[in-house]
Design brief:
Elements (H helix, E strand, L loop, with lengths): L2 H23 L1 H56 L3 H110 L2 H10 L4 H17 L1
Helix pairs in contact: 2-3
Length: 229
């Protein structure tokens, strides 16, 4: 195989794959359209059946008319024979023969219409049954597609929500860290202010068990002792 032939084959293969992809992507739409096409054919078949049945009824009436005419002319022929008028009886007999040919033709037409009507009725019945089944299947397919689309949307939203929830959690942690940092800086500032004030010294003396009142009491006691001595 030449390179050119291989390229053509590859292009044909690609076109086939692309065509199948398009069919797969529009399978439900294609199925629905095929059902509509079948319904249109069914409607036409019903019209054809109506025409055939009408012609069958017309053929039946013609059969009855010709049969009655044959019976009527047989009576005429019998009457002519009774009168001994054989020439007239022969003429009537020729008319009867012509009517019998017409009757055979009408019977053949009637039977043709009848067989076609029976076959078309069966076809219409089977088509209606298949279309009803296809309509149910189409409804199920559409419902399944809707459920699958909804499920996909929920899945996507859930995945996005998880991502957003994770981002929100991270933002909350940053806020809390910022607030904690603010509280820590405030406490540190307060401690620094205390250390640079007299209150800090008093606190340290108090922690050591030393206070102004204790210092004054010691001084007074020493002074009293000195006086006694």
């Amino acid at each position: 195989m030449s390179i050119f032939s291989k390229i053509i084959t590859a292009l044909r293969g690609g076109a086939s794959e692309a065509g199948e992809a398009i069919v797969d992507a529009n399978a439900t739409r294609i199925f629905a359209q095929e059902i509509r096409d079948a319904q249109n054919h069914l409607t036409k078949a019903k019209r054809d059946l109506t025409d055939i049945m009408a012609k069958q009824m017309q053929a039946q009436r013609e059969l009855d008319r010709v049969a009655n005419s044959v019976t009527e002319h047989e009576g005429y022929a019998t009457a002519a024979l009774t009168q001994g008028n054989e020439a007239l009886a022969l003429e009537v007999a020729e008319k009867i023969a012509s009517l019998e040919v017409e009757h055979a033709e009408q019977k053949q037409a009637f039977e043709s219409y009848e067989s076609n009507a029976i076959r078309l009725k069966e076809l219409v019945k089977n088509t209606e049954r298949q279309l009803a089944d296809h309509q149910r299947q189409l409804s199920m397919v559409k419902t399944t597609e809707s459920v699958q689309k909804a499920t996909a949307a929920i899945t996507d939203n859930f995945s996005n929500s998880n991502s957003k929830l994770l981002n929100a959690k991270q933002s909350l942690e940053r806020i809390k860290a910022k607030q904690q940092n603010f509280d820590d800086r405030l406490k540190a500032s307060e401690q620094l202010a205390d250390e640079n004030s007299d209150q800090s010294l008093k606190n340290k003396l108090a922690q050591a068990g030393i206070s102004d009142s204790q210092t004054n009491a010691s001084s007074v006691l020493e002074r009293l002792k000195a006086k006694q001595g």
